[in-house]
Amino acid sequence: MRWLSKTSNKIIMLLPTMVVYLVFIIMPVFVTIYYSLTKFTGIGETVFIGFKNYQNLFKDPVFFMALKNTCIVLVMTLLILLPLSFTLAVLLEHKFKGSELMKGMIFAPYVITPVIVGVIWIFILDPHIGILNAILRALHLDALALEWIGGIKMTAYSVSIVYIWQVLGFYTTIFIAGLRQISSDIHEASQIDGASKLQDIFFVTIPMLKETITIEIVLIITGAFKIFETVQQLTNGGPSHTSEVLVTYMYFTTFTSNRYGYGMAVATIAFLFSALCSVLYLKNASSQMTQGDSR
Amino acid sequence: MKNKTFISRFFVIVISFISIYPFLWMLLLSFKTDTQIMNAPFSLPEIWNFDNYKRALGVLKLPVMYKNTILLVATTQVIGLTITFLSSYCLARMQFKSEKLQKNLYVFLLIGLIIPSYLLLFPLYRIIVALNLQNTYLSLIMPLTGMAISFNTLIFVGFLRDFPAEIEEAAIMDGCNLRNLCTRIVIPIMKPAFATLIVFNVIYVWNEYPLSATLINDSKKMTISIGASLFKGSYGTDYSGMISAAVLIIVPQLIFYILLQKNIIEGMTAGAVKG
Questions:
Q1: Which of residues 41-80 of A touch B (CB under 8 A)?
Q2: Most buried of the four, A167, A199, B57, B220, by CB within 10 Å?
Q3: Please, what are the domains in chain A?
């Protein structure tokens, strides 16, 4: 390999990637941070105002609404998606008649254009034309026929359910891949020791899946902060911003009301929060892992 | 024991059904009239005809949208895979005077994995405006290529590291030059890595929405996701038209998915499993 490793070869091979990467990925991050420190409306001067946008952010009720909704989605996803995808993975790990078909069915929503996911669910969740309320009314459960989307209370929860539906197959597949890495000897050994199936899952499988679970949780955290298309299609943040999540609010402030500096502060904070949650979790997880090792 | 298996199978079947139920539901709705959709939610369509689809096609410029999306996907893939293959091969196989530099360049190229696209929307818009590229495909191709770099690097370099370099060494001994080495030997060996990346990136670019919506507003250049996002505006309260248009967009995706199911599931989860 030495003969071909001329500096000129290396430069030619690395240069295109580096240029595209620097101009379109790395530089924009700094541009975002720069604009988040300015006041800019698209016309006129860009005025440097320091951390004023961030200060205003923490006085902005809509921002807190968006943050709250994002957190609802995150918590709902952790509480429902994680156990559900794990259970499905355990049940689908070993092939049986139809298991491949079912895996395919569960994964299908993940390949569909996210914008269309929003459109489809309008026809299920909409309080007037949606099937969900029609079913509830037919069962004489009118009290439960809520404004799933477009009301004030339920949208964030509905968005969580739609999101879980969309990504369930993805997370299940990652768990299946993790499960297949555990050697069957270990399960056999625990069976010989008299462990029941459930004991095997709780005391053998889950501890051995720590790494997979860590990956899943970090993906769930970063994923929840990225939700955009579904909310935009279902309610577009409305009515009067009550169903806004961080990214839709960023999009609104930036591209609808042209407060570019403020919008970039929202984007930066959203990124920082998701990074912070991931890092805190990873730190916690790795300290737990080392504790486990020392025992 | 039998009973338990039954319950667990039943559970999986229920979840699978919930997963595809919305698709079946929209298929059924697409044959109903608006009055039926609103007033008789449980009724079956009275007449099974394709009126809704004809109306949907009248509003939706499906051929243009497909042409644009395919063009966009193909160009980003060719450019992205070529440049990242070259850089990954360089980083995985070439000898650097400073090994530290080599490692740092690799880590630097992976940073993109943690940068969410919403952070880049407005700056990219500014850069595109500054370069005077609004409403051109180039304005989407370059950023979308950029967004693929980190993941491509992860998969390519990972593959090359797991694969011994002996064959390549032997070819070089026999006097093979760099170009022939790449095209005749390395790329054929790396087919599985290419397949994974193509599946992953094609689906990503095909479905990409926020960036396209920000950079493209010329209806002649509209991609499939932008078209779909305008449903509410273009169909108003024509619900049956809207749902038929959604079916027209989803069915080709589902067919593609069914045909390549195994590769798609593998490709889309490869990053998470390897990372």
A1: none
A2: A167
A3: 57-257+266-294 (1.10.3720.10)
